[in-house]
Every structure is written in C-alpha cells, then in structure tokens.
Amino acid sequence: MRSFLVPMTDPNGQDAVLDLAFAMARKFRGHLSGLFIRPDPRAAIPFMGEGLTADAIQDLVDASDREGKARAARAFAVFEEKRQSENLPLGDGLEGLDDPTISWEETTGFIADRVGRAARLADLTIVPQPVEPNHQDSADLLNEVLFRSGRPLLLAPPERQHKNPGNSILVAWNGRAECARTVAASLPFLHQAERIILLTVDDEHPDRPSLEGLRIYLARHGLTAETRQVQSEQRSVGETIRATVDKEQADLLIMGAFSHSRWREMIVGGVTRDAIHHARIPVFMSH
C-alpha cells in the first residue's frame, strides 16, 4: 500500500481518524492526502425561494462561501498541527519510496460526488466510525467510500488507543465474494501481522469456499493463520464476532461489507451494521 486518503469534511472523531491515518502512512511508508470538500454555495440557489432578490441571494451565497472557507481553514489547521507533531514532510510521494509524505487538497462540490471518486485513487481511505445517530456526515463518508470507490476503507473508532493496528488480526470469513475481495485487499496488512485468526460463525455454507480453504490460500502467500469456528448460540453473528475479537485480543478486524442487501441490513440489522456502529477496534472492509 502506498496511497492513503483521509477526508476532513466531518469534524467528528478527527483526532482518532488522524492518529490512524498518519499511522498507516508510517506503517507502509506511503503518501497520505488530506482532503476537504467545501459545499458549493451556488448549489443552494434553486432552493432559496422566489421571494428573494438577486442581491439577497448573492449575499447568502457569499456568506455560505465564507463559512465553507472558514471550515476548510479550521480543518487544515488541525491536519497541519498533526503533521508537524508527527514530523512528516510535505510532498507528493513521487520522489522516493522510503519515507512517508503528506499533502493537502481542497475541492468544492457535494460529498456524495467527490469523496467516492477521490477514494478510487487511494489504496485505503480512513473514515470515522459513525457512532452517534446524528453524525450524518460520518455516515455519508462511509457510504460513499464503501459503495462508490471500489476500494477498501479503514473505520476509525473514536477511542484513540488504536494508533497502530495490525499486529493481531481477526478475519471474519463467510465465503462470499465481497469477503474474498476484502481479504485480497488486506494482504499488505496480513503480511505485517504477528498473528492472524480466521473466524467463521456457525456452520459453513457447503457451496462456498471454506475456512480451511482460506487458510491454505493464505499459506500460499507465505502466511500462517489460526482458525476458529464459533457458534453464535443466543447471540447475533455481529455480537459473536465482537466477542471473539475481545477473546483473541485482536487489534484489527477484517471483513466484507453487506453480504446481504444494503437496505435489508440497514433496516433489519446485520453483521456490517453491527461492526459499523459497535466495533471497538479499527475495521478494514470493502464491498
């Protein structure tokens, strides 16, 4: 992994997100880009009502533009303070592959249009965990990266003790395509891990690749992994995964996202939703 992206539009959980993002740049000696997306004030003009004069509309647009620039300045100040505290240089990541570099970019538009597209050119995007129901920006960031980038993301919980995850990794395996895609994308992490635990919950599906098959696949990459098959009993699958994370003292969870319909999982619950809202360690996932 060489290219990392951290969107800075959402102020919630910024400290934990930056801790994790800068740790990834150091871990893989890669390039980290900070991105701030300013709303386009002109996009609100159609919704301002017919009773406003042109001058009034322009005043509102100007005020919105000033607020967007002020928010961008505050986000950059936080990002730059972190960069200086980490003593990492500004750069574009093109002149050497031995040391991490940092850059900052501002753009204007809708988060839904910009962040997913920007993430397509990042090996990994670090986003905050949307732990509060009113943190809509966090949820929007996660959804856009997950469903529109085609790349994996790393979910940062609000606690700041997870500054360098990946020593002890738990892989939640169900044999589905999105899970296989996530495991393949996480190979750089797995190669640096001291311990890898492969977990399946309840009985394996007879028509999908097995846990033992995954162990053999990783062995062909030179990786040694332990396997666990755990019964959920009276718990949900998500709760069982989190309990196993705690028992095994894993510091990174790797899992595919939304094995079932996205809307079904959001409405009735599911493993992905459980991890998104309740995981207490960083989660590496893709769809």
Automatic annotation (TrEMBL):
Question: Pfam families per the record?
Answer: Usp (PF00582)
Membrane-crossing ranges are none
Domain (UspA) spans 217-285
**Family, as annotated:** Belongs to the universal stress protein A family.
What name does this protein carry?
Universal stress protein UspA
Native organism is Iodidimonas nitroreducens
